[in-house]
Structure formats: structure tokens, C-alpha cells
Design goal:
This protein is of the alpha+beta class. Among the domains are: about 120 residues, Butyryl-CoA Dehydrogenase, subunit A, domain 2, CATH 2.40.110.20; about 130 residues, Four Helix Bundle (Hemerythrin (Met), subunit A) (Up-down Bundle), CATH 1.20.120. A hairpin with a 5-residue loop joins strand 8 and strand 9. The mean pLDDT is about 95.
Length: about 575
């Protein structure tokens, strides 16, 4: 199977759907106009198609491995990293003063998604570095920025993030890693971290770890956590890798998927580190990178979904079975239903993700709080719906293949195995939903209602060309508004949490209807109008059941005792 980066889809979304013109109209991003954006996407597409996609199967069949304490990456991954680094793709949105391109997050998000569709195992590596670059740019001292950021941006060095411990997963405040002052401005960091994506590699001269640990006077919980930069090799006086630091990879996890991406258990034994940000402010500093990382993970789900869709479509066009006009299964009604559902959901998820990225760019360009609030609200939806969509599309891709999809040689199962973790890492999708109905509703539902207002205004404009679809989207908004009001009125947070996942999905369904309707208006009589009709008529109605679930409260979830659950 040959992967084709969905460059035309992104060009359409940027031009007609998500308001990218607002971004390129700002002084900060004025050089990233539509023609420049298309050129960037086209070049990134070539990298995805010609360099990264051929590594996809090999990374699964010949995983990263640990030999006598030395990490060996999958064949071809070193050359793939080199191509990514030399193309400048790691530092797309990084500051120019340290060697980055300072491009809009919308373009970085699009490129990262296309890379994920080509080879997610490898794409994880530059995503980790991008997150570290962002954290350092916002919180590190000038000395640390000057030394580390140019090398991270160039790809000479790579970055990781170390949060999780065996007893501290989603509850980061339970971590036990410690940092002791050395008296010279450095710290001795000790502890063990698990689930560290790309914790080591054999193609960079240094690997730089951002590690959460607690200082001696750090209080229990999240408020006592600090963030440290701990390199594999200590830089010498010239800034080059010198003495090996006191850290090592203990083992690699044996995973369901993403075999080409080494997930490490890291051990720190008094390793030398430097404080990033203020003492006891580590979680806030880490969240600087995690928020955009969550958007990136949503893109990973969508990217893998795109790869799974392309392979399923190719198979359906070739597989002869039963009686049909073409002689292949693509003409069977249920196969068409599956393919249309896959394509429609990918469009919806991609539009939501890009809309979030545009809000991030507008906040960066204008400093306006409204854009920041919009980005914050859309982030958990982008992450959860993007990854849920990737999982469901990959699952459906196996189904389109039938029995062949269950055979590993087909490659269909790899998409499902690889993408499944995206709903778990960078904050589980349940946590994303809880964040949406709790922290993101601290404004009394103001941002939610403003988005609903915008969708209804667009539906009103669409009544002249698409009256039936416009009415469906408008009515869905009213149902969503009622559910939002109900949620805001609940003082018992457990009543909100019990329905958080269906509420988030319902919000995404309505946003998807909005973006599909906008696409129909921009493509009268074209394929996107036809796809919009399919989504709005057949998939949008799901919001009714979801919102009923969202407003059911918590009592039903606790109706069975623990003994009855086990009975």
C-alpha cells in the first residue's frame, strides 16, 4: 500500500473552513500566506510519502531493541530522522532566534498529522522534541535556551518528557522522584520513570530529558513538583556532549503497537539536572508543552485513521467478492457505509483540530484572552475526538478487509494496534472529558455557548442553500445548549463526570456538523457537499442519545454494589 499525504484536504480546510486567513493576516504570521502554506504542505507531503511511509511496516516487524544497554532503533529510522531534521520540520513553530521557522501552529499541526499517517512510530520522536522546545522557550533560563534549543531544533539532539512513575500515572502528584541541590546551581535527580516515549535513540548525539521531581522542601501533591532538564551527556565548555550522566534505560516496554517507537523505563541515580522555571512550579511548566502535545496527539489519531482509510479503500477497490457492478466489494452497500463513515469522521475531526490550532495562533498573534479561552476549550475535544476517530476508523478498516484484516501480513491490524494508545497517553480521553465539563466550564459555560452561537449563525446563513441540513445543525445546537445549561447547574461534580465522555463526543458531533455544513456551502454540488449530507443525515443524530446520557447523572453508574459488579 502506498500512503498519500492529504495535502489537498488541508488546503481546502485552511482556505474555506477554519479561518486560516485570519492567521496569515496578522503581523506575526504575515509571511505564511496561502501560497506559502500550500508550498510547505506539499514539501511535507513528499517527505511523508517518499521517506516516512516506507518505514511504517519495518518499524512494526523489526522493533527498537536494547542490546547490552545500547538502544538500537528500527532499520531506516535514523535516515528518516535525518530527513525530518534537515527539512527543518522539528522547528516549524519554534522561535527564529534559536533557529526555528516561527510558523503558525496550524501548519505544524497539519504536517504532524500527515507524518503520523505515514509512520506514527517515527513521528513521535520529533513531537517529543517540539514539546520540549516549547517548554524551554517559555520557562528556561536564557543560558539553557541558548545551549539546548538550537540543537533540539536542528535535530542534532532530541527531547523527551518524563512524568509517569509506577505509582503516579494520571495522579502526577504522587510521584516520588527527588532532586537535591548540588550547591552549584545544578541538582541531583533520582528516581525511576516509566512509559517514556523515545527515551533514547542511536541517531542523535544527545537526548535531553525533562523530568518532574520533588525538591527537599517540596510539599506533597502537585504543588511541590519542580521540572528539571537532565541530558544523557553533560555538555562540556563548548556545549558539546561530554561525560555520560548518571541515568540509563532499564528496559523497553513490550507493547501492543508502536513497536518502532522505544518506550523506556528510565533510571536516574543522582543525575545532574538544571531547574526549568521556578521551584515547585514544574507542573505548570510541563503543561505548557502538554497542552499543545494533546493537540498533536489528536492529530496522531487522525493521521493513523487516514492511513487506515486509504488502505481500506484500496482493498475495497481490488477485492472481488459477491455480485456487484464492478465485481469488487466497494459496491456493496455496507462497505460503502463504512468507507463514507470513515471519511466523514476524519473530515470532522481534522476540522476541529485545525480550528483549535488557528485559535492558538490567533492568541499568539493578538494576545487576546478570548482566543486563549477558545483554544483551551477546543483542546480536550480535539484530543479525545481525534483519537477516538482514529481508533474507530482503524477498527472499521480491519472490518473492510474482512478475514484478511485479522491477518498481520495485510498491515490493517497495525493501524489499530498503533493508534489505540493515543486515547490513553497525554491524558486519557476520560480525563479530557472531565476537564471539559469541570475546568473549562468554570466560566459558567460562556465559551461553550459562544461556540454554539457561532454554529447557529452559520446555520442561519446556510438556510438559503441547504435548508434541511441547516435546520438539522441548528436543532442540534439547541439540544447541546440545553445539555450545557444542565451541566453548569450541577454542583455535584460527579454528576458532570458521569456524563463527561458522551457530552464531549456530542459537542464534537455538533462541531462536525457545523464544519461539514460549511464545506457544503463552499463546494456546491461537489463531493464535500455530498459527504456533508451523509454526515448530517446519518451521523449527527447520534448527539441526541449522547446528550441524554450526559444528563443522566451519576446515580445510575453507582447503582450496582462492588459485590454486584463482581457477581
Amino acid at each position: 500500500m502506498s500512503f498519500r499525504a492529504p495535502v489537498p484536504e488541508y488546503e481546502f480546510l485552511l482556505k474555506h473552513i477554519v479561518g486560516y486567513g485570519q492567521v496569515s493576516a496578522t503581523d506575526r504570521f504575515s509571511e505564511a500566506a496561502e501560497d506559502m502554506a500550500s508550498a510547505i504542505l506539499t514539501e511535507a507531503g513528499k517527505l511523508c510519502d517518499e521517506v516516512m511511509a516506507p518505514l511504517q511496516r519495518g518499524g512494526d516487524m523489526e522493533p527498537a531493541r536494547l542490546e547490552n544497554g545500547v538502544l538500537r532503533t528500527s532499520p531506516g529510522f535514523a535516515d528518516g530522522w535525518k530527513a525530518i531534521a534537515e527539512g527543518g520540520w522539528i522547528g516549524m513553530s519554534a522561535p527564529e532566534e534559536h533557529g526555528g521557522m516561527a510558523l503558525p501552529m496550524a501548519l505544524t499541526t497539519a504536517v504532524n498529522e500527515m507524518m503520523s499517517g505515514a509512520c506514527l512510530s517515527l513521528q513521535l520522536a520529533p513531537l517529543m522534541s517540539q514539546g520540549q522546545i516549547e517548554a524551554l522557550a517559555h520557562h528556561a533560563s536564557d543560558a539553557l535556551k541558548d545551549l539546548y534549543m538550537p540543537k533540539l531544533i536542528s535535530g542534532e539532539w532530541a527531547g523527551t518528557m518524563n512524568l509517569t512513575e509506577a505509582q503516579a500515572g494520571s495522579d502526577v502528584g504522587a510521584l516520588s522522584s527527588k532532586a537535591e541541590p548540588n550547591g552549584d546551581g545544578t541538582y541531583a535527580v533520582s528516581g525511576q520513570k516509566i512509559f517514556i516515549s523515545w527515551g533514547d535513540n542511536d541517531f542523535c548525539t544527545n537526548v535531553c530529558h525533562l523530568v518532574l521531581a520533588r525538591l527537599p522542601d517540596g510539599v506533597p501533591g502537585t504543588k511541590g513538583i519542580s521540572l528539571f532538564l537532565v541530558p544523557k551527556y553533560l555538555p562540556d565548555e563548548d556545549g558539546n556532549p561530554g561525560k555520560a550522566n548518571d541515568l540509563n534505560v532499564v528496559s523497553l516496554e513490550h507493547k501492543m503497537g508502536l513497536h518502532g517507537s522505544p518506550t523506556c523505563v528510565m533510571q536516574y541515580d543522582g543525575a545532574t539536572g538544571w531547574l526549568v522555571g521556578r521551584e515547585h512550579g514544574g507542573l505548570a511548566a510541563m503543561f505548557t508543552m502538554m497542552n499543545n502535545a494533546r493537540l498533536g496527539v489528536g492529530g496522531q489519531g487522525i493521521g493513523v485513521g487516514e492511513g487506515a482509510y486509504q488502505q481500506a479503500l484500496e482493498y475495497a477497490l481490488e477485492r472481488k467478492q459477491g455480485r456487484s457492478e464492478s465485481g469488487t466489494i466497494v459496491d456493496h452497500a455496507d462497505v460503502r457505509r463504512m468507507l463514507m463513515t470513515m471519511k466523514a469522521d476524519l473530515f470532522a475531526a481534522r476540522a476541529i483540530m485545525l480550528s483549535c490550532a488557528v485559535a492558538i495562533d490567533m492568541q499568539a498573534a493578538t494576545g487576546e484572552a478570548d482566543w486563549a479561552a477558545r483554544a483551551a476549550f477546543l483542546t480536550p475535544i480535539s484530543k479525545a475526538f481525534g483519537t477516538d476517530t482514529g481508533i474507530s476508523v482503524a477498527d472499521t478498516g480491519v472490518q473492510v478487509h474482512g478475514g484478511t484484516g485479522y491477518i498481520e501480513e495485510s498491515g490493517a491490524a497495525q493501524f489499530f494496534r498503533d493508534v489505540r494508545v493515543t486515547a490513553i497517553y497525554e491524558g486519557t480521553n476520560g480525563i479530557q472529558a472531565m476537564d471539559l465539563v469541570a475546568r473549562k466550564m468554570m466560566d459558567g459555560g460562556d465559551m461553550a455557548n459562544r461556540l454554539i452561537d457561532e454554529i447557529e449563525e452559520q446555520a442561519e446563513r446556510a438556510r438559503t442553500t441547504h435548508p434541511n441540513m441547516a435546520e438539522s445543525v441548528w436543532q442540534a445546537c439547541e439540544t447541546l445548549r440545553e445539555a450545557t445549561e444542565w451541566l453548569v447547574a450541577q454542583d455535584n461534580m460527579n454528576d458532570r463526570f458521569a456524563g463527561a465522555v458522551p457530552y464531549l463526543r456530542a459537542f464534537a458531533r455538533v462541531l462536525g456538523g457545523h464544519f461539514h455544513l460549511t464545506a457544503a456551502m463552499a463546494d456546491l454540488g461537489g463531493p464535500r457537499e455530498k459527504l456533508a449530507r451523509f454526515y448530517i443525515n446519518r451521523m449527527l443524530p447520534e448527539h441526541v442519545a449522547l446528550l441524554a446520557h450526559a444528563q443522566a447523572g451519576a446515580d445510575g453508574a453507582y447503582a450496582l454494589t462492588l459485590e454486584e459488579l463482581a457477581g
